[in-house]
Amino acid sequence: MALAVSSSSSSAISASNLQHFAASFEVKAPRIVSVQLLNRPRGLSYGVDYSRKGCSVKPINVKSKRNDLIVPLSANTLGAEVEEKAETVDYDGLAKDFENASPLEIMDTALERFGNDIAIAFSGAEDVALIEYARLTGRPFRVFSLDTGRLNSETYKFFDTVEKHYGIHIEYMFPDAVEVQGLVRNKGLFSFYEDGHQECCRVRKVRPLRRALKGLRAWITGQRKDQSPGTRSEIPIVEVDPIFEGLDGGIGSLIKWNPVANFDSKYIWNFLRTMNVPVNSLHSQGYVSIGCDPCTRPILPGQHEREGRWWWEDSKAKECGLHKGNLKHLNGNGNGALHVNATPQVNDIFVSENLVNLNRIGIENLARLENRKEPWLVVVYTPWCQFCQAMEGSYVELAEKLAGNGVKVGKFRGDGEQKEFAKQELQLGSFPTVLFFPKHSSKAVKYPSEKRDVDSLMAFVNALR
């Protein structure tokens, strides 16, 4: 696998030495070569179970099992193996230990511990700082980006500049052509101005990202607390990803690193200028946060940087879905208000014309039927559950695939006053619980796995219908 590599000191560089290091470091675009990890002293020594099996850097010419996920550019060049770890770690505690660490130290630790199974998410904006920090560690690193097909021409030119500057190949992920075609044919090119950006982002960004992350055990983002007061003010430096699944599948299979979470925009831009890092030319035109062309515009003096994104929508909760885990217990206004009984007010999930919303009477009738005309797949959920939110995209996609194929897909909200009923009659142990009601049986079959991707759910349905 081709890796972006560069030569540097074999030990991590602290923030206090960065200025001296920057002055003496000659920036050159490195060549793509076959390398071995250096014998380096470890930084922070935490025993970490990165999704149960730990990180595994493959030897030369090993066959990757990532298939069509992130293109496995770097699977064939590493000559060392990292032994699997079986220890566990308190990620909240680990995040606290990193509170005063520099982005360079955090980046170095992340790359050291995950090797070839971690990648930097690059958006074409100031995320280039992450690539520079990765280069300064001297370790091999991978970079991927989501090409939605609607980026500015300046952003595409920037991608090319970054690849040449660092001597790397960015691993691009693209949306499914059939899904994009269906969206555009049914709703036109600019439906998001009328009904919100979520549907378009789900097709062009969220689902490609889900495919990408299924080939990794960890990813690195450029999220900062100052970027969006409504959604990013509490992001930790490192966490178990609450939304997406990694290579091993299931809850806890993906680790998310946010090395610049505690650093503001001024710090990042001072770093970029100091290191003479290439930047997107749109920044000089008033763009700060840069996304797709139709959904991004320059901001005015005094405006917050995220106000240039989806400017026609509520400014307090501007997320495309890539970092949906940040939306903790927010209601429709993004202010986190609660019901008097302390149940969070949130927008409903699993919203699709291909899904039947079952009430108490509906689910009772379905459960009593012994001869159904069609089998049913039903999720027992609550919209404030992060694990329910995590499977929303895959479950909606599954409903689309099953539409007209002889299986009804539904949902039943099982929290609040319905919780006891769901426990007694619907096998609810924890949210979400997925049940299959066969055509000629009164007993529902509970989905036994924590893997909630489309393929796993479809295999469950096909085995029973």
- Say how many strands there are: 11
For the record, the count of structural domains works out to: 2
CATH class of the largest domain equals: Alpha Beta
Ends distance = 41 Å
Order of helices and strands: HHHEHEHEHHHEEEHEHEHHEHEEH
CA radius of gyration is: 23 Å
Strand content: 5-15%
Strand order in space, largest sheet: 3-2-1-4-6-5
Characterise the protein shown here.
A 6-stranded mixed beta sheet has the order 3-2-1-4-6-5. It is globular and about 70 Å long. Helix 4 (128-137) links the parallel strand 1 (118-121) and strand 2 (143-146). It folds into 2 domains: 91-317, HUPs (Rossmann fold, 3-Layer(aba) Sandwich); 356-463, Glutaredoxin. Helix 3 (103-114) packs across helix 4 (128-137). The two termini are 41 Å apart. It has helices at 18-24, 91-97, 103-114, 128-137, 153-166, 177-187, 192-195, 198-213, 265-274, 360-368, 386-390, 392-402, 419-425, 454-464, and strands at residues 118-121, 143-146, 171-173, 218-220, 238-240, 255-257, 356-357, 376-381, 408-413, 433-437, 445-446. The protein is an alpha/beta fold. Its cofactor is [4Fe-4S] cluster.
